[in-house]
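Marked as duplicate of an earlier ticket. Keeping the data here for the record.
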Amino acid sequence: MPWLKMDDGFYDHPKVACLTPAAGWLWMRGLGWSARHLRDGFVPQHIVCWLARDDADALAAELHAAGLWGPAPGGWQAHDFGDYNPSAAEVKAKREAARLRMQHRRVFAGTVGEGDPVRANIPTVRKKFAESSRERSREQPTNVPRTVPEDVSHCSRAPTRPDPTPTEASLLGGVGGAGSEEPRVPAPSPPGAETPSGARLKGGRKGRAPEAREVPPPLGTVARRVYDALVADPVLRPITAGPADLAGRLVADGAYPRVDVLAEVLRAGEYAARHPGRYRDGRRFLVNWLRTAAETIARAPTVAPPAPVAPKAHAPPARPPAPRASPEAIRATAAQVRAQIQAQRDAALLEGGQRRD
């Protein structure tokens, strides 16, 4: 399904700003229908009636007066549709090229069965694929100087493996088919040798020829865990040259104090995955990321550890509560107390009578 390309500022264009809401909605729906059905901006009259219902003629006349639609045989034609959207012929050509490309992959991947008509048409598939490859190579200009961004000049290390451009013969016959031949790979240059004059490495940089292969850091080290994270990351690995050397530099003593390098590398990979295509130099991206993390930690106020609290002196154990007396015992004790008081009164009276006598 093709996409309809619209400028994000179309709503305040003078031609659109003067439209009524119904006319603007008809214009948008008409463009979408034309793009979906590959009509190059043409909207038939019966489709206009179906989209606008009873107000089709009035709304179409409003779009015509605004300069967005023009009359065409059998309907209306959107102005400047081909200036911003691909034509139907271009869309069909891309679909045919994609179909041939997938046929070619199925043929050489061995997923085509014996009864599949594609297997009987393998020579035709090879011929069409070769013709489309030659047409694309003729369309792309050669020997065009590339502009090297300034932000990649700091990295002097070359990619760990060469990225040769596959030839037409290796694409067509490199999987055991007829006409296959070995791809030509340039002989490796000695370490420290410069590339030929004008040659550029992957990423548009000039420098030394790529080394044969890097040696990963030893197992069990922090550098090895960082290296494994870089190699396993689908976003950082293609844009990071020399992951083994970079891992050793990132975890070096004093490089980024108080920074968990492995955790920050994983966070950087997640951030780059949310912004695909933004970063082209993984080494510079990771160095800037870790430098920012170190500066953030350095600016954070240091919190003093809490002072130790002296242990509290142990209080003497509390006395166990006295057992509660029963009501009968309380009444008996009260009777004894009353008897003692009465006896004391009687003794006092007796002693007073004896003194008077």
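See parent ticket for discussion. The chain has a mean pLDDT of 74.
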